[in-house]
Please model this.
Amino acid sequence: MSILKNFICIIPARAGSKGIKNKNLVKIKNKPLIQYTIDVAKKLGKHCEIVVSTDSLKIKKICIKNKLDFYGLRPKKLSNDTALTRDVVMYEVKRIEKILNKKFFGILLLQPTCPIRDYKKLMKSMRILKNEKFNSVVSIADVGATHPFRMKKIINGYLKNFMNFKEENMMPRQNLPKVFIRSGSFYLIKRNYFFKKKSLVGDKCYGYKLDGLETTNIDSPNDLIFIKSMLNKNKIII
Model:
């Protein structure tokens, strides 16, 4: 292993999924969903030790086909619906560091449900993390029309403002304060901070703004239909 590989890139890809059966293996433009994330991770190979965390023998075969080192299947207790991503990351980092007798500087989490990524932005994010000013970098997206100032909740059968506004906020969208949501594309954090706080988002976090298809998460059949349609429509080669 090269001493330049100061980051560990973890791709969590368990076999089970509720919204879409065998989601990580679903074909998009003749490639399984997980392959898109593996393709991006391989472009970071000089800097990252790539670890696909899975309990699936089919995904193991994909790793071998991609000539990735495979360090064993994930335990069942970390492969059910209630398993936390944080615990999976912690398990894999400890395991791989012990195998390689190495301590990493940073942890990069790439979830297969976000297939469209620009590896150059990931490289830039890794450079940002080396700045002492930040302990994490997280991808974010503008909430746009789904702004919290416009959100509602139902209390005792009545529609009420989600925010504590006495009057209806009718401000034009372009005048609303900018609000962002984690896009899910990537989480990048300093290893020592992660183990200290057990969180993938630090208290000194840099928000890396993404837009367009890079913010797409495939969690439902409709999401899958949308991404297939957009890729065919725009003739994007990924």
Summary: The longest strand covers residues 180-190. The beta strands are 7-12, 27-28, 31-32, 48-53, 106-109, 136-142, 152-155, 158-161, 180-190, 205-209.
